[in-house]
Design brief:
This protein is an all-alpha fold and about 160 residues long. It contains seven helices and no strands.
């Protein structure tokens, strides 16, 4: 019995030690609309609303991919050899690391945020007034979490904030 308690305590302690700080976690949702869709039952969204919201979010996502692959005049990852629109690898970074925060990345994120805002404004029109009020709270919390994550990235330095 003592060994089981010790093992259970060790597992709890290990879980606590390996859990990252909340500010270091990127929000799981890909957009404002996705954040709302994760609360579809709570918001009592109809099947038609859910379908229409998915369509709006898919259109937004396609536009974001277009920014990534064809930045022509817009900020985003440049085409780089055979990797297409992927962010160029840097020698001191592994293939799964977050790219360094650069002015181009910040401009890309601003453009993607604008697309998210446009899509959200279209989504609001699909909701009832009661659903809209509750969804605005969800979207505000998601955007705050995204902002917090972006500004607490390990590679986010003062020089990247100022655009230098």
């Amino acid at each position: 019995m003592t060994a089981r308690r010790w093992l259970a305590g060790a597992l709890v302690l290990a879980a606590c030690v390996t859990v990252p700080r909340a500010s270091s976690l990127r929000p799981a949702e890909r957009s404002s609309i996705d954040a709302v869709l994760r609360h579809a039952v709570e918001l009592a969204l109809s099947d038609a609303q859910v379908s229409a919201l998915h369509e709006l979010d898919d259109v937004r996502e396609a536009k974001v991919r277009e920014l990534q692959h064809h930045p022509q005049g817009r900020a985003g990852p440049a085409r780089h050899g055979r990797r297409g629109g992927a962010w160029p690898r840097q020698p001191d970074r592994g293939p799964h690391r977050v790219p360094a925060v650069t002015p181009a990345l910040l401009a890309f994120e601003a453009a993607a945020d604008e697309l998210d805002t446009q899509a959200w404004l279209g989504a609001e029109a699909l909701l009832t007034p009661v659903q809209r009020d509750a969804a605005r709270v969800i979207v505000s919390a998601w955007r705050e979490a995204l902002f917090t994550w972006r500004h607490h990235r390990p590679e986010f330095t003062d020089s990247s904030r100022s655009g230098r």
